[in-house]
């Protein structure tokens, strides 16, 4: 069955070939928007859509794209897709488009998208490319959600905007025992450190991932 | 043998066709959807103005505008007068809310141009609100908003929004925990001079109990967005001060 043969395309990027922790793609957006869990989830869904569709489009065009300008062509494909979605949402789902508008620029410049177009879609058929796109965006989503979870919990004491540790101003919940939110968690350097810890844990569990030098 | 797709002539033809096709698709979509988008933006302006004066569907935590199917009627009902201030001249204009602040700012760079300042007067439960639109710069892109003042020039509510502030940090200026702090805040200092509303990281007043200090608590991690917002409030309200002095009680 083709589906079983290709299922590694989905499962590999979730762990052993994760776009963020192994391929080191998409770090910029992973640092920028993970201060809240909700933003992480929205970004993950947006990338899932753009990478899935974009990979298919680039894959369909792979035999006609001139190699000299292939990066520009890929950039045009992703930018066009994102702008079309943005326009349609603005016309028919204005509220949703306002939530997503800040992510538009981040999606176009997300190097996971260019990276997968270049590394996979240009060399493989549409179905495989679609699976690769879905797999890699899920791998991206996993890391984004883990980082977003810890940054929001430790930085603001909330999850999805709901206070889970008590009220820091009224001093209820764990704040009554002298606990304080760590405002540093909200800043980009702590996202980098959190990603670093995930990479450390992952390579400790699977030493085959450590490169020889 | 050289591949067909490596030839210069092929590359150029491909590029030309791609640009034309993509350009045509985007131009067609943009112009055919423009009426819908413009209408959405117009309703959004009405919603935001009403939000600032406290006409909204908020529950305890959410930011909920009056729904789009009701907004035109509510706007008609609550906004009793819209005026445009041009220097000394004050004219009534029922489309004042459609004045584009970005274009006005650009035109005002020419010193001979008298800037048109829109102001909306709302009535709710016997109280009069003077609602002023504002526009400025955040960290990445534009920020804008509306502030509703009463006759004592005390803020009765605000609405802020932004184009591209960082999600989770600066983007939170349109959340309740931040906007609600502005309610009751004075824009004049104790001696009656214009002060605006500053956004501070270190005012040691996280619950914002001091309403006369012209300061609200900032959002952690969003210093530059906050500074931009405070600069916007100061700069844009100052332009209205000559008019506001005449209504002040």
From TrEMBL, chain A:
It is a multi-pass membrane protein. It holds the Pfam family Rnf-Nqr. It comes from the Bacteria. The chain crosses the membrane at residues 41-60, 72-93, 99-117, 138-162, 182-201. It is found in: Cell membrane; Endomembrane system. Its EC number is 7.2.1.1. It is an enzyme of class 7 (translocase). InterPro entries: NqrD, NqrDE/RnfAE. It catalyses: a ubiquinone + n Na(+)(in) + NADH + H(+) = a ubiquinol + n Na(+)(out) + NAD(+). The keyword Transmembrane helix applies. Keywords: Cell inner membrane, Cell membrane, Ion transport, Membrane, NAD, Sodium, Sodium transport, Translocase, Transmembrane, Transmembrane helix, Transport, Ubiquinone. Its main location: membrane. PANTHER family: ELECTRON TRANSPORT COMPLEX PROTEIN RNFE (PTHR30586), NA(+)-TRANSLOCATING NADH-QUINONE REDUCTASE SUBUNIT D (PTHR30586:SF1). Belongs to the NqrDE/RnfAE family. Composed of six subunits; NqrA, NqrB, NqrC, NqrD, NqrE and NqrF. NQR complex catalyzes the reduction of ubiquinone-1 to ubiquinol by two successive reactions, coupled with the transport of Na(+) ions from the cytoplasm to the periplasm. NqrA to NqrE are probably involved in the second step, the conversion of ubisemiquinone to ubiquinol. This is Na(+)-translocating NADH-quinone reductase subunit D.
